[in-house]
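FW: tagging you since you asked about this chain on Friday. Here's the raw sequence from the shared folder, copied in full. Didn't touch anything.
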Amino acid sequence: MLIISSREFRANQKNYFDKVDSGQEVLVQRGKNKSYRIVPVTEFDTLLSKDNILEPDLELARAIPFEEFKKKALDHIKELRNDRG
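HL: got it, structure written out here
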């Protein structure tokens, strides 16, 4: 693990990013009580995977008007009630 000051990091950012990219662990100390570990961001670090990101135009094309949705929902509820009784 490489431990450097924040001043050293600012002066040589590219060098330290390259070290992290090659697998070396870099710890940046800021003052007496603060330290930061630099790690590359991966797809697993994001909140949404690329598979779950919607294409707006495609999703809009799939949309149905509210009144149609409401009618289908009410019909479905009626079917459920009839199946119970």
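FW: The radius of gyration is 27 Å.
HL: agreed, and The chain has two domains: 2-41, 54-84.
FW: great, closing this out.
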